[in-house]
């Protein structure tokens, strides 16, 4: 029997060793135009492939990590996927880290934070679902 933690998205919990932990964030689907990207498109080939895939299959894969701001949302992951969704006109599945709108204390703008620094902050916040999403984001970049 595996002891690896897994995400139960239907119940919004993380299961570890048979025990469920509730996550603080909230899943939703929002217009791509309400999300500020972490950075602009840096890989044209990746962006083009995502646009083609999203036109054919829609959004697939993990939601974007975002946090609520006064004007909408700020992305913490998925800038290329977000840009492609805008071109195609898709709504975007998100996991909002601060559904209450309270600011996240980072000490620096998230646009200059490395993925590993954002992961460290998520571990400090203590949201296991957000941690796993960020770990998957980092693993996807390393795999390429």
Any overview of this molecule?
By secondary structure, the protein is α/β, with parallel strands linked by helices. The protein has one domain: Conserved hypothetical protein from pyrococcus furiosus pfu- 392566-001, ParB domain. Helices cover 35% and strands 24% of the residues. The protein has helices spanning 44-57, 79-88, 115-125, 128-143, and strands at 6-8, 13-16, 19-22, 26-31, 35-36, 64-69, 72-75, 91-96. The chain has a five-stranded mixed beta sheet. The chain has a three-stranded antiparallel beta sheet with strand order 1-2-3, with helices on one face. Strand 2 (13-16) and strand 3 (19-22) form a beta hairpin. Residues 1-22 have low confidence and may be disordered.
State the main characteristics.
144 residues, alpha/beta, Conserved hypothetical protein from pyrococcus furiosus pfu- 392566-001, ParB domain, five-stranded mixed beta sheet, three-stranded antiparallel beta sheet, 4 helices, globular, disordered N terminus
């Amino acid at each position: 029997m595996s002891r690896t933690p897994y995400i139960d998205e239907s119940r919004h919990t993380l299961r570890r060793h048979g025990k469920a932990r509730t996550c603080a964030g909230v899943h939703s689907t929002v217009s791509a135009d309400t999300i500020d990207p972490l950075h602009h498109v840096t890989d044209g080939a990746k962006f083009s492939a995502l646009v083609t895939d999203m036109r054919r299959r829609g959004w697939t894969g993990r939601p974007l990590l975002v946090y609520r701001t006064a004007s909408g949302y700020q992305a913490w992951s998925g800038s290329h996927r977000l840009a492609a969704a805008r071109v195609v006109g898709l709504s975007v599945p998100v996991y909002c880290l601060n559904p209450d709108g309270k600011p996240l204390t980072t000490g620096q703008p998230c646009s200059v934070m490395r993925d590993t620094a954002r992961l460290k902050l998520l571990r400090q916040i203590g949201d296991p679902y957000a941690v796993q999403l960020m770990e998957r984001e980092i693993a996807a970049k390393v795999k390429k």
